Amino acid sequence: MEFLTNLFLAFHIIGIAALLGGFLSQTKLLKAGEARITPGMLHGALTMLVTGVALVGLNEANDGDVNHIKIGVKLTLLVVLTALAYVKRDDEKVATPVFGTIGLLTVANIFIATLW
Known about the structure:
By secondary structure, the chain is mainly α. The protein is 79% helix and 0% strand. The protein has helices at 2-24, 27-32, 39-61, 68-87, 96-115. Helix 1 packs antiparallel against helix 3, helix 1 (2-24) packs antiparallel against helix 5 and helix 3 packs antiparallel against helix 4.
């Protein structure tokens, strides 16, 4: 069970890296208003969502202590983030506030995971 938890955690981190890396690689384009949602960003968000739910399930099954309020906040942020990425995935240019929100929610999710 521990191996499976660590495997899902590794994929969760890979999803975060794909999403945040896609955002950070376009910061110059963000200033010009030409940033767009890359397929890697959408796949990263979906990977985070699926593996995050799996990690909670594995911790519950292993009688681990799960902070349900923290998980609820993280899940809410991630669902909003994934929905934004999904809806805007085909747009040639994504509005700066929308793209910035995706980056902000990603960073907020990371800080909630590590500092809460």
